[in-house]
Amino acid sequence: LPGPNNVTELTCTNTCPTGTAPDSTNRCVSCQVTGCTACTISLTGSPVCTQCTTGTFLFNNTCVSTCPTGYGRVGNACQACPTGQFTSPTTNTCASCTDVSANMNNC
Description:
Layout: E1 20-22, E2 28-30, E3 36-41, E4 47-52, E5 57-59, E6 62-64, E7 71-74, E8 77-80, E9 85-87, E10 94-96, H1 100-103
Antiparallel strand pairs: 1-2, 3-4, 5-6, 7-8, 9-10
């Protein structure tokens, strides 16, 4: 019979499935972030996303399709642009005002 969490069968595995992570009791729990494919569980038990699906980028424990203003894509994450740079709307990366192709009237 199903238990309180609707668990009908417990299976031991070496790794948790995509979108889940082991908690302090070694049970695989959901990352609870839409688009998150890998996470860790903090000491307080909250999931912390560490990887997003292809085409999305990690930003403040969420997965976004484009980095917000003032942030640029670095690998699979959004990082703050250095002083004097802006988010290029064409590349979703940080660009400087001397980069004419990315400028798009941002300077």
